[in-house]
């Protein structure tokens, strides 16, 4: 709605859902459908992020096996390959 109100020219809108459960709630998917927006990716809830946050460790040090790191890597590959 903000895009319309501001009369912005947007080629494509995407949604990235962070800390997502395994299955999205039907209310979320219904709203995305209503808006005509496809969720490009979901970044799963990752306990390692919580642990790093508690220990004040940089998220840049997360291992490549982290669920969130894997999801972000997959997202970047997907987005960059569409150019």
Automatic annotation (TrEMBL):
Protein name in UniProt: Uncharacterized protein
């Amino acid at each position: 709605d903000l895009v319309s109100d501001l009369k912005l020219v947007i080629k494509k809108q995407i949604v990235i859902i962070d800390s997502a459960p395994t299955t999205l709630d039907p209310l979320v998917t219904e709203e995305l459908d209503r808006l005509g927006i496809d969720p490009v990716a979901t970044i799963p809830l990752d306990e390692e992020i919580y642990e790093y946050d508690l220990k004040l460790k940089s998220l840049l040090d997360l291992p490549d096996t982290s669920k969130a790191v894997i999801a972000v890597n997959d997202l970047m590959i997907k987005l960059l390959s569409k150019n």
